[in-house]
Amino acid sequence: MVPFGGAGHSLEIIKRLSEKGKLIGIDKDDDALNASKEKLNKYKNITYVHGNHDDIKQILSSLAIEKVDGILLDLGVSSYQLDERNRGFSYMGDSTLDMRMDKTQELTAKKVVNEYKEDEISRILYEYGEERFSKQIAKNICKYRKIKEIETTLELVKIIEESIPKFAKKEGHPAKKTFQAIRIEVNNEIEPLYNTVKDCIDVLNKNGRLCIITFHSLEDRAVKTAFADECGKCTCPPDLPYCVCGNIAKGKIITKKPIIASIEEQNENTRSKSAKLRVFEKI
Fold it and tell me: pTM of this prediction?
């Protein structure tokens, strides 16, 4: 059985499953689930779950499943979501500021930019987007919204462009980091990730594997840290004369370094350039 987050890799995974196996597809986005159902309609060994991989234990319990043989987490926004311009994930074109993966939740990008305090917006842009001009962008967002509510992606892009010096615009699209940061905040992508990784390892059978694809450094750092800790890494303060944390190894890291896309794949799919795959095996 292979629970996973995201619909992008469903077809390739299901082709590799035996007919005796079972695939559980978990996604917060109903549109992504429906797209997967349409693509995979000839396969009968799939259970689709509208949910969050952060709740993996509860989801499996609701399905009366205790352990699984493999898990793939495909983190972040999908190509399907980026290409759906009306969802507000993309800084290309113009659409309503939304960015919700789960369209039933209340928090949207529109609420973040119009209701968060200036220092909070600045913190989010700096921490989640590593945006060095976060303070100026946050200042201009708050200045603009005093005149009128910020409603569209195009409005936000224009504010960002006016906040960044000319030399920095040569480094890529000026709105990329800000849009990433706001999306992460809206969907709470980072905060629960460390514990999610540990929960996934807990529900693996012996020799089962957890595969995680990340697309930016914050995700990769959380995954790398959780993997190291689940290998039994001592977490005691360095000044203690002996270990008291009692950490026990639950498995081993298969990928000492993350696997990245080949040059050929990167040329065919530019979005794969930032992808990193890490694998952990339960013992």
Answer: 0.85
Q: What is the largest CA-CA distance in the chain?
A: 61
Could you tell me which CATH number the domain at 81-187 has? Answer: 1.10.150.170
Beta bridge partners of 23: 46
Overall fold of domain 207-283: Rossmann fold (3.40.50)
Domain boundaries, the chain: 1-66, 81-187, 207-283
Burial state string for 51-69 with b = 16 or more CB within 10 A and e = fewer than 16: bbbbbbeebbeeeeeeebe
Backbone angles phi, psi at 182, to 5 degrees: -65, -40
Distance CA 20, CA 280 (A): 24
Asked if 262 and 192 touch (Cβ cutoff 8 Å), the reply is no
Rounded Cα distance between 156 and 108, Å, is: 14
Residue 222 has phi, psi (to 5 degrees) of -65, -40
- Alpha carbon 169 to its chain centroid, in Å, reads 26
Give the Cα separation of 158 and 155 in Å (integer): 5
Nearest residue to 104 (alpha-carbon basis) of 29, 27, 48: 29
pLDDT tens digits for 143-177?
999 999 999 999 999 999 999 998 877 778 999 99
